[in-house]
Protein backbone atom coordinates (compact mmCIF):
# COMPACT_ATOMS: atom_id res chain seq x y z
CA UNK A 1 0.00 0.00 0.00
CA UNK A 2 2.81 2.41 0.90
CA UNK A 3 4.73 1.66 -2.29
CA UNK A 4 1.61 2.14 -4.38
CA UNK A 5 0.77 5.40 -2.64
CA UNK A 6 4.34 6.65 -3.16
CA UNK A 7 3.96 6.13 -6.90
CA UNK A 8 1.01 8.56 -6.93
CA UNK A 9 2.97 11.46 -5.34
CA UNK A 10 4.21 14.23 -7.65
CA UNK A 11 6.73 15.80 -5.28
CA UNK A 12 9.94 13.74 -5.74
CA UNK A 13 11.19 14.27 -2.16
CA UNK A 14 7.92 13.21 -0.54
CA UNK A 15 7.60 10.32 -2.99
CA UNK A 16 11.06 9.02 -2.04
CA UNK A 17 10.34 9.42 1.70
CA UNK A 18 7.18 7.30 1.46
CA UNK A 19 8.92 4.76 -0.80
CA UNK A 20 11.70 4.49 1.81
CA UNK A 21 9.12 3.87 4.52
CA UNK A 22 7.60 1.12 2.36
CA UNK A 23 10.97 -0.62 2.10
CA UNK A 24 11.54 -0.30 5.85
CA UNK A 25 8.10 -1.72 6.67
CA UNK A 26 8.81 -4.76 4.49
CA UNK A 27 12.09 -5.27 6.34
CA UNK A 28 10.31 -4.94 9.69
CA UNK A 29 7.76 -7.53 8.60
CA UNK A 30 10.50 -10.00 7.59
CA UNK A 31 12.24 -9.57 10.93
CA UNK A 32 9.03 -10.06 12.94
CA UNK A 33 8.13 -13.08 10.81
CA UNK A 34 11.53 -14.61 11.60
CA UNK A 35 11.02 -13.84 15.30
CA UNK A 36 7.60 -15.52 15.29
CA UNK A 37 8.95 -18.61 13.52
CA UNK A 38 12.04 -18.88 15.73
CA UNK A 39 10.02 -18.82 18.96
CA UNK A 40 7.12 -20.83 17.50
CA UNK A 41 4.57 -18.17 18.45
CA UNK A 42 1.01 -19.20 17.65
CA UNK A 43 -0.91 -16.42 15.90
CA UNK A 44 -4.27 -16.43 14.11
CA UNK A 45 -4.13 -16.57 10.33
CA UNK A 46 -4.35 -13.15 8.68
CA UNK A 47 -6.32 -12.43 5.55
CA UNK A 48 -4.67 -11.34 2.33
CA UNK A 49 -4.48 -7.55 2.02
CA UNK A 50 -6.15 -5.88 -0.94
CA UNK A 51 -4.83 -2.44 -1.87
CA UNK A 52 -7.79 -0.03 -1.80
CA UNK A 53 -8.63 2.02 -4.86
CA UNK A 54 -8.92 5.22 -2.79
CA UNK A 55 -5.41 4.96 -1.43
CA UNK A 56 -4.73 8.29 0.27
CA UNK A 57 -7.31 7.70 3.06
CA UNK A 58 -5.76 4.25 3.54
CA UNK A 59 -2.35 5.86 3.98
CA UNK A 60 -3.81 8.32 6.50
CA UNK A 61 -5.46 5.53 8.49
CA UNK A 62 -2.19 3.61 8.45
CA UNK A 63 -0.23 6.67 9.60
CA UNK A 64 -2.46 7.41 12.57
CA UNK A 65 -2.55 3.72 13.45
CA UNK A 66 1.24 3.60 13.41
CA UNK A 67 1.42 6.66 15.69
CA UNK A 68 -1.03 4.99 18.07
CA UNK A 69 0.72 1.60 18.10
CA UNK A 70 4.25 2.97 18.35
CA UNK A 71 3.52 5.28 21.28
CA UNK A 72 2.39 2.35 23.44
CA UNK A 73 5.02 0.00 22.00
CA UNK A 74 7.72 2.41 23.19
CA UNK A 75 6.37 2.05 26.72
CA UNK A 76 6.02 -1.73 26.54
CA UNK A 77 9.59 -2.19 25.28
CA UNK A 78 10.79 0.20 27.97
CA UNK A 79 9.14 -1.83 30.74
CA UNK A 80 10.45 -5.12 29.37
CA UNK A 81 13.94 -3.63 29.35
CA UNK A 82 13.63 -2.27 32.90
CA UNK A 83 12.74 -5.64 34.41
CA UNK A 84 15.30 -7.57 32.35
CA UNK A 85 12.68 -9.82 30.79
CA UNK A 86 14.61 -10.07 27.51
CA UNK A 87 18.38 -10.18 26.87
CA UNK A 88 20.08 -7.01 25.69
CA UNK A 89 20.70 -8.60 22.27
CA UNK A 90 16.91 -8.46 21.77
CA UNK A 91 16.99 -4.68 22.05
CA UNK A 92 20.06 -4.45 19.85
CA UNK A 93 17.86 -5.93 17.12
CA UNK A 94 14.62 -4.08 17.84
CA UNK A 95 15.83 -0.62 18.98
CA UNK A 96 16.64 0.45 15.39
CA UNK A 97 13.12 -0.58 14.37
CA UNK A 98 11.60 1.55 17.13
CA UNK A 99 13.79 4.46 16.03
CA UNK A 100 12.55 4.03 12.47
CA UNK A 101 8.95 3.91 13.68
CA UNK A 102 9.55 7.17 15.55
CA UNK A 103 10.86 8.70 12.32
CA UNK A 104 7.79 7.44 10.46
CA UNK A 105 5.61 9.13 13.08
CA UNK A 106 7.41 12.46 12.72
CA UNK A 107 7.27 12.30 8.93
CA UNK A 108 3.57 11.43 8.92
CA UNK A 109 2.57 14.20 11.32
CA UNK A 110 4.49 16.77 9.26
CA UNK A 111 3.06 15.42 6.00
CA UNK A 112 -0.42 15.54 7.50
CA UNK A 113 0.07 19.13 8.66
CA UNK A 114 1.40 20.06 5.21
CA UNK A 115 -1.67 18.54 3.56
CA UNK A 116 -4.15 20.23 5.89
CA UNK A 117 -2.55 23.65 5.56
CA UNK A 118 -2.49 23.37 1.76
CA UNK A 119 -6.17 22.44 1.89
CA UNK A 120 -6.95 25.41 4.14
CA UNK A 121 -7.86 23.16 7.07
CA UNK A 122 -5.07 24.08 9.49
CA UNK A 123 -7.44 25.05 12.30
CA UNK A 124 -9.21 21.69 12.01
CA UNK A 125 -6.04 19.62 12.44
CA UNK A 126 -6.77 18.94 16.12
CA UNK A 127 -10.33 17.81 15.42
CA UNK A 128 -9.09 15.60 12.60
CA UNK A 129 -6.48 14.01 14.86
CA UNK A 130 -9.03 13.21 17.56
CA UNK A 131 -11.32 11.61 14.98
CA UNK A 132 -8.50 9.59 13.41
CA UNK A 133 -7.09 8.35 16.72
CA UNK A 134 -10.60 7.37 17.84
CA UNK A 135 -10.88 5.28 14.68
CA UNK A 136 -7.47 3.70 15.32
CA UNK A 137 -8.50 2.78 18.87
CA UNK A 138 -11.78 1.27 17.66
CA UNK A 139 -10.02 -0.83 15.01
CA UNK A 140 -7.49 -2.13 17.53
CA UNK A 141 -10.11 -3.01 20.11
CA UNK A 142 -11.94 -4.93 17.40
CA UNK A 143 -8.74 -6.75 16.47
CA UNK A 144 -8.06 -7.67 20.10
CA UNK A 145 -11.59 -9.02 20.48
CA UNK A 146 -11.20 -11.12 17.36
CA UNK A 147 -7.82 -12.44 18.50
CA UNK A 148 -9.25 -13.38 21.90
CA UNK A 149 -12.06 -15.38 20.28
CA UNK A 150 -9.62 -17.12 17.95
CA UNK A 151 -7.34 -18.15 20.81
CA UNK A 152 -10.28 -19.50 22.85
CA UNK A 153 -11.36 -21.67 19.94
CA UNK A 154 -7.85 -22.87 19.12
CA UNK A 155 -6.47 -26.18 20.39
CA UNK A 156 -2.87 -25.32 19.47
CA UNK A 157 -0.39 -24.65 22.28
CA UNK A 158 2.43 -22.38 21.19
CA UNK A 159 4.21 -19.53 22.90
CA UNK A 160 1.01 -17.53 23.39
CA UNK A 161 -0.84 -20.38 25.06
CA UNK A 162 1.91 -21.76 27.29
CA UNK A 163 5.03 -19.62 27.54
CA UNK A 164 3.40 -16.20 27.85
CA UNK A 165 1.78 -16.96 31.20
CA UNK A 166 5.23 -17.78 32.60
CA UNK A 167 6.41 -14.22 31.83
CA UNK A 168 5.34 -12.10 34.80
CA UNK A 169 5.49 -8.31 34.64
CA UNK A 170 4.49 -6.26 37.65
CA UNK A 171 2.47 -3.85 35.52
CA UNK A 172 0.36 -1.01 36.87
CA UNK A 173 -1.58 1.37 34.65
CA UNK A 174 0.12 4.48 35.99
CA UNK A 175 3.54 2.85 35.65
CA UNK A 176 2.84 1.81 32.08
CA UNK A 177 1.53 5.25 31.04
CA UNK A 178 4.48 6.99 32.70
CA UNK A 179 6.90 4.74 30.83
CA UNK A 180 5.09 5.41 27.54
CA UNK A 181 5.54 9.15 28.08
CA UNK A 182 9.19 8.81 29.05
CA UNK A 183 10.11 6.52 26.16
CA UNK A 184 8.17 8.59 23.63
CA UNK A 185 9.89 11.79 24.80
CA UNK A 186 13.27 10.06 24.49
CA UNK A 187 12.56 8.85 20.95
CA UNK A 188 11.24 12.25 19.85
CA UNK A 189 14.05 14.29 21.46
CA UNK A 190 16.48 13.56 18.60
CA UNK A 191 14.38 15.49 16.06
CA UNK A 192 14.66 19.17 15.21
CA UNK A 193 12.32 21.30 17.33
CA UNK A 194 11.07 22.98 14.15
CA UNK A 195 9.41 19.73 13.12
CA UNK A 196 5.91 18.83 14.25
CA UNK A 197 5.73 15.86 16.59
CA UNK A 198 2.74 13.80 17.72
CA UNK A 199 1.25 15.70 20.66
CA UNK A 200 -2.34 14.48 21.12
CA UNK A 201 -1.65 11.01 22.55
CA UNK A 202 1.07 12.27 24.93
CA UNK A 203 -1.29 15.03 26.11
CA UNK A 204 -4.19 12.61 26.69
CA UNK A 205 -1.89 10.12 28.40
CA UNK A 206 -0.39 12.81 30.62
CA UNK A 207 -3.88 13.95 31.65
CA UNK A 208 -4.98 10.38 32.35
CA UNK A 209 -1.85 9.76 34.42
CA UNK A 210 -2.51 12.83 36.57
CA UNK A 211 -6.10 11.70 37.18
CA UNK A 212 -5.00 8.17 38.11
CA UNK A 213 -2.47 9.52 40.60
CA UNK A 214 -5.16 11.64 42.24
CA UNK A 215 -7.28 8.58 42.95
CA UNK A 216 -6.96 6.94 46.37
CA UNK A 217 -4.47 4.11 46.24
CA UNK A 218 -5.82 0.66 47.01
CA UNK A 219 -4.32 -0.65 50.24
CA UNK A 220 -2.76 -4.14 50.19
CA UNK A 221 -4.76 -6.79 52.06
CA UNK A 222 -3.84 -7.22 55.70
CA UNK A 223 -2.16 -10.47 56.69
CA UNK A 224 -4.21 -12.56 59.10
CA UNK A 225 -3.13 -15.38 61.40
CA UNK A 226 -4.51 -18.77 60.55
CA UNK A 227 -6.87 -20.21 63.16
Report helical residue fraction.
55-70%
Number of helical elements:
8
Helix and strand sequence: HHHHHHHH
What distance separates the N and C termini?
67 Å
Task: List low-pLDDT spans.
Answer: 153-167, 222-227
Principal-axis shape equals: globular
SS class: mainly alpha
Mean pLDDT: 82
Main pleated sheet:
none
Which strand-content bin applies to the residues?
under 5%
Quaternary organisation: single chain
The count of DSSP E runs of length 2 or more, i.e. the number of strands, is: 0
**Radius of gyration based on Cα positions:** 20 Å
Could you name the key traits of this structure?
single chain, 227 residues, mainly alpha, 69% helix, globular
List the helices and strands and how they pair.
Blueprint: H1 2-6, H2 12-38, H3 55-82, H4 88-118, H5 125-153, H6 159-163, H7 173-188, H8 200-214
Helix pairs in contact: 2-4, 3-4, 3-5, 3-7, 7-8
Put the structure in a nutshell.
This protein has 227 residues and is mostly helical.
Structure characterization notes:
The protein is mostly helical. It has helices at 2-6, 12-38, 55-82, 88-118, 125-153, 159-163, 173-188, 200-214. The radius of gyration is 20 Å and the shape is globular.
Amino acid sequence: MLATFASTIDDPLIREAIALQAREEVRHARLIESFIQHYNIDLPTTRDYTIPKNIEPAFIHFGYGECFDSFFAFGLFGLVRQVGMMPEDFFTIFDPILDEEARHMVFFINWMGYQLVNQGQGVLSGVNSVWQYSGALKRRLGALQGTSKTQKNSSKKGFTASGARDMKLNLTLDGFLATCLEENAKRMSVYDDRLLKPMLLPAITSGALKMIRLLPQRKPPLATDSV
